[in-house]
Amino acid sequence: MVKKKNVIIWCFHDPWGLTVINRLKKTNYNIYHSNFLDEKSLGYILRYNQEDLVREFTKKKQKYKKSIEKKYKKFFNEYKNAYLSRNSYPKISLQKLRKVYLSQASFIERFLLNFKTNAILMNTELSIGVDFLFYRICKVLNIKTILLYSHTFFQNYLINTTSLEDFGRFEKSIKIHNTKKIKSNLPDEIIKYKMQRYIKPISMQFSLAVLMPKFNLAFRRSTIKEFFSDLIVVKKKLSLYKFLKKRKSLKFISDNLPINYVFFPLQEQPEASSISYGQFLDQAKICEIISKSLPKDFKLIIKDHQTQECTMHRNQYFYKRIKLLKNVVETNVNDNTEKLVKHAKILVTITGTSGFEALKHNVPCIIFGDSWFKNFKSVYKWNKGTNITKILNTPVHRRNLIKDLKVFTKKLNRGYPFKINTIWDPKNKVTNNPDTLSSETASSIKSMLDKIL
Fold first, then answer.
1. For 242-268, what is each residue's pLDDT tens digit?
2. How many CB atoms lie within 10 A of CB 177?
3. What's the rounded Cα separation, in Å, for the pair 155 and 351?
4. Closest-CA residue to 287 (of 336, 240, 348, 378)
């Protein structure tokens, strides 16, 4: 009898995702699901039992502790940036955070070796710190890695890579046979697709509403603790109220657009994609870089994100830095984004979808992180040699976008690795049959595992 290969799955935490897990457990693989909702699970222990892990690590022999530090200290900055950017943990000193980091590294390494792990499956949006560490340790131990990604633009499909650094290029994707053919008109569907929210963003709501208690949390047993926590964060709510009031009081620049401008729609923070693929978490720094690089007759228009609630990433210092830039102007948070994108000479983003929307309007895009479309023509990854004048003089053609999408869609597989019900999916466009989709997702994952194991 052939021994089963051991696979750890670090994703699929919602009820729909569990149907995918259950299907995979019926295959010829020994599946361990790191469910963050299960107190006995690897993911839960790493995220919520940090004090216990530190105490356990402290008792280890000095030689062992030094070996762990030597092997994994180079990943600490990546971990630290994600951990602190999330702003969802208790305040902690850098010294204490380093102890947490090393204790988690020790626990992860021992778990992977004891489980005799052959492969791990994750989605590409690593953003809480410990998920970066888990991935990096797997690479150090030469454990096979599969990273899955999907987007609202190509629902029903996913794309894979075996390396985080390959995200956007997808040169290391695992090629598998699709049981159903990819639709030939998918590139056209992606171009025509228009993202629409069905949940009203916070910027569109009455500003004083942010000061009100979240009474809806009081009627569910699972969220009653969150309700009482919400009641006592008065200072945080006042900060958000002032932030929203200011952003909503600004002029709508789209009513009188300058002829020459670059548009930078700020991304929400903290947010998984900007942490995972964004080498720049400081968006004020991006404003400073672009401001210095613009031709004399150009303006940089910035617009805050309609769902921005964390004022840690939008403090007074953030806006004071931007006000010092004479060629940078901020528009109302509820301004017409589509119009601002359509008439811009260049669009700037870290990893945002607005970059792809710009390409649809024949507007070139500068990115500061890694996006799924970063290898497309007219997309420029910022570096010290980036010449904005040269980009302005380089024409953008729709035919190149269609050509790039055709190449991209050939790498897609059937399936969907995220939650089915998202704010972008009011009519459940992902699938009319979740059971079918979970079957296709599990089938694609099994084929990938078969290929690399």
1. 777 888 889 999 999 999 999 999 988
2. 8
3. 19
4. 348
Q: How many helices (H) and strands (E) does the chain have?
A: 18, 12
Q: Which amino acid is at 413?
A: N
Spell out the alpha helix ranges (H) of 115-255. Answer: 130-140, 186-192, 224-231, 234-249
Cβ neighbours, 10 Å, residue 181:
7
Task: Give the closest residue to 390 by CA, choosing from 295, 322, 261, 292.
Answer: 295
Distance CA 362, CA 355 (A): 11
> What ranges in 155-233 are assigned the alpha helix state H?
186-192, 224-231
Protein fold of 252-407: Rossmann fold (3.40.50)
Diameter over CA atoms, the chain: 73
Tell me the backbone φ, ψ of residue 326, rounded to 5 degrees: -65, -25
Q: In 118-262, where does DSSP find H-type helix?
A: 130-140, 186-192, 224-231, 234-249
Q: Give pLDDT < 50 ranges for the chain.
A: 215, 217-218, 222, 422-428, 430
CB neighbour class for 37 (10 Å; exposed up to 12, middle 13-18, buried from 19): exposed
Kindly report the number of other CB atoms within 10 A of residue 39's CB atom.
10
Q: What is the pTM of this model?
A: 0.86
Half-sphere exposure of 147 (CA within 13 A, CB side): 24
| DSSP letter for each residue of 64-79 | HHHHHHHHHGGGHHHH
Q: State the first-to-last Cα distance of the chain, in angstroms, to the nearest integer.
A: 17
CA–CA distance, 252 with 332 (Å, rounded to integer): 5
Q: Which helix or strand (DSSP H or E) is residue 163 part of? A: none
| Distances in whole angstroms, Cα of residue 71 to Cα of each of 75, 122, 163, 370 | 9, 22, 19, 26
Residues 164, 145: Cα–Cα separation, whole Å = 9
Alpha carbon separation from 424 to 184, 201, 317 (Å, rounded): 24, 12, 33
Strands (E), 294-416: 299-303, 328-331, 346-349, 365-367, 379-381, 413-414
- Residue 390: both structure tokens together: 């040269």
Q: What is the pLDDT of residue 222?
A: 47
Domain range list for the chain? 5-180+412-452, 252-407
Strand-pair category, 157-161 with 144-149? antiparallel
Using one digit for the tens of pLDDT, what is the confidence trace for 70-126? Answer: 999 999 998 888 887 775 556 788 899 999 999 999 999 999 999 999 999 998 888
